[in-house]
Design goal:
TIM Barrel; eight-stranded parallel β-sheet; globular
Length: 261
């Protein structure tokens, strides 16, 4: 069984040729045990929650969070805190997998640095309050990302779509986080990612599509979907010189450790 720890199902569904029923049918057909719908802005929150509730029997979880490239006004952050508190006391609380994706993005800089930092710190506080994993986006901002996490003393969660080499990976692992690799690890010129993926131990690794983005080889150029993650599993297993079954079991065990019992 395989899983996808980071999906934007709402973005996939913008392609009107694909329906929600199609997506769920494909997950079953491809033996996908779990998948996580990731929020990136406050207008995603209710849809993400309701999508998970409709499909929880098919292993769907969701997150609540604001991406560093999304506006994060005080009202949006307040709405996030309120909704997390509400859902944590509700019938479907276990479906709320974590807070995010949140973090820092100094590559795009779609939002001012000050707003990104305030948003990230606020979401760390929300995660700490409810003991939820953080799903972290960090692009060209690793030093500040890790410094903020160190100051906040929180090391529970996932560094999603990891971007860096084994030296950077060690810093993230030392903080207590799991590291997730997306389809770009399969790209021929992604030497730093190959180095990092070789380094990260099996008990700390997760895999994701980040679909509809970062389609893995050999399907690069097409819109990404969760079932394409099988190519990333195959690549990582060969890179780490372990059996596909062993990698699948390790990723599943790592993921289930993050699910609240």
């Amino acid at each position: 069984m395989i899983l996808d720890s980071h999906v934007h199902f709402n973005m996939i569904l913008k392609d009107k040729k694909i329906t929600e029923a199609d997506i769920i049918k494909s997950l079953k057909y491809n033996n996908m045990e779990y998948a996580v719908q990731i929020s990136v802005e406050d207008k995603d929150f209710i849809w993400s929650r309701d999508f998970a509730k409709r499909n929880y029997e098919n292993g769907i979880f969701y997150t609540l969070g604001i991406h560093p490239s999304s506006p994060a006004e005080d009202s949006g952050l307040s709405n996030l805190a309120s909704l997390v508190g509400q859902e944590m006391s509700g019938k479907f609380s276990k479906l709320l997998f974590g807070i995010g994706e949140c973090g820092l993005d100094y590559y795009r800089m779609h939002q001012p640095k000050e707003m990104q930092i305030n948003s990230f710190e606020t979401q760390i506080d929300i995660a700490k309050k409810h003991k939820l994993p953080l799903i972290i986006h960090s692009r060209e901002a690793m030093n500040d990302t890790l410094e903020i996490l160190k100051t906040k003393k929180y090391g529970n969660g996932i560094m999603h779509c990891f971007a860096g080499d084994s030296t950077a990976a060690k810093r993230v692992l030392d903080m207590g986080f799991m590291i997730s690799f997306a389809g770009n690890v399969t790209y021929k010129n992604a030497e730093e990612l190959h180095d990092a993926a070789s380094y990260v131990p099996l008990d700390r690794i997760l895999l994701e599509t980040d679909s509809p983005f970062l389609t893995p080889v050999p399907l690069r150029g097409k819109p990404n979907v969760p079932e394409y993650i099988k190519h990333t599993y195959k690549f990582i297993a060969e890179l780490k010189k372990v059996s596909l079954a062993k990698l699948e079991d390790s990723v599943t065990e790592n993921f289930t450790r993050l699910i609240r019992k």
